[in-house]
Write a structure and sequence with these properties.
- With 155 residues, this protein is mostly helical.
- It has two domains: 39 residues, no CATH class; 92 residues.
- Helices cover 53% and strands 4% of the residues.
- It contains four helices and three strands, in the order βββαααα.
- Helix 2 packs across helix 4 and helix 3 packs antiparallel against helix 4.
- It is flat.
- About 6% of the residues have low confidence.
């Protein structure tokens, strides 16, 4: 059987299948990737791209991100999309959930028994939720300060 690696995520897959990153292109056989890399190295590059100082999305590890998305998808099916935003007392509850998943992982349980997805992916979701609520709280404070300043200006 010939071996292929996705040219985008590097995942090893049979040449007739798509990798998990769901690109529209089929994964390139190893020899094609090597040929492409060699061609790129030999080709003189004279183009310009002013992307210094911009966010480096290419540094994000896509495998764990896929696991986080799988947890979010499970939650959307079980409850409803974006249901996590409507939970009462979210900071305390997601903080507690974060620690439950971390403790389970630390004690050697890699996968959540209900979802069969990694506890660390669940923990990462809890951290993202907490960050979202913090960001929302900061935006609300800024809006309130702006509103108060406008009201004082109108007196």
């Amino acid at each position: 059987m010939s071996v292929s690696f996705c040219q985008y995520c590097g995942e090893r897959v049979p040449p007739w299948q798509l990798c998990k990153c769901h690109h529209l292109n089929r994964c390139a056989p190893v020899e094609n990737v090597r040929a492409r890399v060699k061609f790129t190295e030999e080709k003189e590059m004279d183009g310009e791209k002013h992307d210094q100082g911009k966010a480096r999305w290419d540094l994000l590890p896509w495998g764990p991100v896929r696991q986080i998305v799988a947890v979010l998808t499970f939650g959307a099916k079980k409850y409803a999309p974006h249901n996590w935003q409507k939970v009462d007392n979210p900071r305390e509850r997601y903080f507690a959930a974060l620690h439950r998943h971390l403790v389970a992982w630390r004690e050697g349980e890699l996968l959540d028994p209900e979802t069969k997805l990694p506890h660390l992916a669940h923990a990462a979701c809890c951290v993202l939720f907490l960050m979202w609520f913090d960001d929302r709280k900061e935006k609300a404070k800024a809006f309130k300060a702006k509103l108060e300043a406008m009201q004082e200006g109108g007196k």
